[in-house]
Amino acid sequence: MVVAAEDRSIALLPGKGKTVSWPGHQVTFVHGYPGAAYSLIEWAVAPGVPSPPLHVHRMTDESFYVLEGTFGFQVGERTVDGASGAFFFVPKGIGHTFWNRGPTPAKVLVTMSPAGFERYFEELAEGLSSAGNTAAAALDIRRALSGKHDIEIVGPPRQAAD
Question: Which string of b and e fits 124-161 if b means at least 16 CB within 10 Å?
Fold first, then answer.
């Protein structure tokens, strides 16, 4: 249950955020509303599934805090593994992606500033559910959404074997 007060403060109780998913990925919206300075999501990733394609945001800064498991992060030309407790900040304009590097499910908390980019995840989940389960169909959906949202695909997905 989301509890909003007159002063615009919010309390989101465990398990009450909106969740969208596609094969191997589950995104739960923790915070974000029009006009907010940032949005916050929890992203759970199964082992062995491809990452989002390498991409750039022109208007959105992102930060990642690893809650569980180990993620590989590509930020620009650098690739770094991050276990639970690792933090990464990606300023707008820098190519990046992340993937579950380990043999177990992993979770990361993602902050996006300014708020608003979370709508992309809703549309991505909807599009992928109707597009079929091929890598080409997934990339087509992502490219179609890129023009509408602050995302430019600049490279392929990554995964644990990379």
Answer: bbebbeebeeeeeebeebbeebeeebbbebeeebbbbe
